[in-house]
Amino acid sequence: MPPLSTHVMRVLQGLFTLLLTLFGLLLVTFALSAFSPVDRVLQIVGDHASQSTYDQVRHQLGLDQPVAVQFWHYLLNLLHGDLGTASATGQPVLQDLLHAFPATLELATLALIIGSVLGMIAGVLCARFAGSPLDLAIRTLTLLGNSVPIFWLGLLMLALFYAKLQWSAGPGRLDDIWQYTVAPRTGFALIDTWLSGDSAAFKNAVSHLVLPVLLLAYYSLASITRLTRSACLSEMNKEYILLARAKGAGEMTILLRHVLPNIRSTLLTVIALAYTSMLEGAVLTETVFSWPGIGRYLTTALFAGDTTAIMGGTLVIGVCFVLINNLTDLLVRATDPRVR
């Protein structure tokens, strides 16, 4: 067993790497904003403002100072939780993100749970019956999940299940009757409607979640299924599997008791990548379903040319990406002795 000093050094190295990565993210995010062709001053004062007004606002924003000084002030503002003010909404960017991010987190987390469970089950079935019609059918279904544009499939789901069959609710998180009556205590629609004690509001929230969650789950299921199948088939050719077969173990028993535990690090990595992809790539889904999450917030900011809001949203997504990846590395080390 390694000495305590070795573990301490590994922890310090991990923290240093994390801080260095976050600093690089801050630097890149700031550079994209600082060298953007969009004039932040004109967004505030308008095209017909006088030169003195333009210069005054530019001085108030600190844009007349060197880039290094601007970056230093940006870091100091971040330490105080100040991401600037969004020109599109007139509110602090941090406040907008705190309102929008729970919606994206709720959508992505539910989709990940469904996609991961179904994806691993489908991947194991494909490995168990490799080359069979079942394997071909599942692989074709997952191939469509990676090929069909997500916005087109979302529009089809709305047209069929909402407009024609009326099996689910339409765009948004809640119908208008509950939109302004349910108190937003946590920012998560399911939790807020549950805490309100109104069962009809809770059912309405579930109905609104069904289509976007299933759509995102389908896209995460596609990659998880394919990689689970590939990892299982790779393990099935190893010597310990031959030994298990020689002892009389069935194929499904081998897959569940021997193969899956040995590919858990791969599965954790794949699931983490799927989660980060949904957090940063739910823009089209949120736009199609009018879901008031961070993806839709960024889309609105992009069309408005609001660089402050874009920088804040990009920073939040980047931080989530870095933290999820580092947490996944820790889980892989904790659960897989071979990595340790």
UniProtKB/TrEMBL annotation:
The protein's name: Peptide ABC transporter permease
tRNA processing recorded as keyword: no
Transmembrane segments: 107-131, 143-163, 205-221, 267-289, 309-332
One family name in Pfam for this protein: BPD_transp_1_N
Annotated keywords: Cell inner membrane, Cell membrane, Membrane, Transmembrane, Transmembrane helix, Transport
Membrane topology (UniProt): Multi-pass membrane protein
Domain ABC transmembrane type-1 per the UniProt entry, residue ranges: 101-332
Protein's UniProt keywords contain Cytoplasm: no
Superkingdom field: Bacteria
Entry's family note: Belongs to the binding-protein-dependent transport system permease family.
Subcellular location: Cell inner membrane; Cell membrane
Source species: Lelliottia aquatilis
